[in-house]
Specification:
By secondary structure, the protein is an all-beta fold. The chain has no helices and five strands. It is 0% helix and 30% strand.
Length: 87
């Protein structure tokens, strides 16, 4: 996922959002395509100035390359990140 400033982001009005409780106890929101159900975004009340966009949902995901991997230490052994911060 790619973090963006929410003030610089816009999406179609037909976008659907689902609210749930995050690990912090505050609300988190997952955004979906109303036609196919693909997850597009994630945001939380805890970090209200950011929205996280699934890179695979972009028109041209090849135009973006990750710079770091988060939560890599908690990934299962079969899912090792190719990008590890600091290397």
């Amino acid at each position: 996922m790619m973090p963006l400033e929410i003030s610089s982001f816009s999406i179609s009005e037909s976008y659907k959002s689902y609210e749930m409780q995050g690990g912090s106890g505050r609300p988190t929101y997952s955004g979906f395509c109303p036609e196919c159900g693909s997850q597009l975004t994630r945001r939380s009340a805890r970090m209200g100035d950011r929205i996280y966009v699934h890179a695979s949902s972009l028109d041209d995901p090849e135009g973006y390359a990750p710079h770091k991997s988060i939560y890599a230490d908690s990934a299962p052994s079969w899912d090792r990140a190719s990008i590890i911060e600091g290397k």
